[in-house]
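Re-run with default settings, no changes from the original entry. Doing this only to confirm the output is reproducible before filing.
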Amino acid sequence: MRVTLPRALSKLGYCSRTQAEKLVAGGHVSVGGRRVTDLSAWVDIRTDRIEVDGKPVAAEAKVYLMLNKPRGLVTTRDDPEGRETVFSCLEDLDIPHVSPVGRLDKASEGLLLFTNDTVLAQRLLDPDSNIAKTYHVQTQGRPTEADLARMTAGILDDGELLKAAGVKVLREADKTCWLEFELREGKNREIRRMLEALGFECLRLIRIAFAGLPLGDLEKGKVRALTDAEVTALKRRAERA
């Protein structure tokens, strides 16, 4: 498989694409014994000998993790504002470089996948994949049936069509309501923006399932490896997409 050198380092699970670009530009990477600093250089990850600071880079074993993301963490490896990131939950794990599969914003909670399987991650995130993601959402106020219908029909916000694949009421209190949303796309802050457009405040947003994989009873802030059966099921869903 021929890819650019920074992408090769990322695909091999050595580091992120951004980190790889810095390594290449800094003269730390060689291919076939020759130092390469050109970010656009092409390599074949199956046959070319790639080294970083003289040490061979080999494909890492594939890792698949689930995190129950707590509220208040940002989904990035390094935050320029110094905020705590989701990677603080992975600090004690002896694993190769992994990346989150998509994002949850700082105020959101729940299921977040990590992997170094870039092929699977790309398939799961492809807008055309139609992968389902399920959320439980607490609102201030109770949306009417007409409001629910508008969210499934589509709401235009800032020139972008926001649309839930499904939404239903789970339970109600005097001033709040819990809803279940199913999304098939990955637009930025999609649920929050739909609710705001209808005049409702989103109090909590928890992702409880991704591609049919449930969060289950995993404790907040805890991480676990996916089972072989779960990985197989994710790959099958991605292949059918």
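Residues 68 and 220 are 5 Å apart (CA to CA). The longest strand covers residues 201-210.
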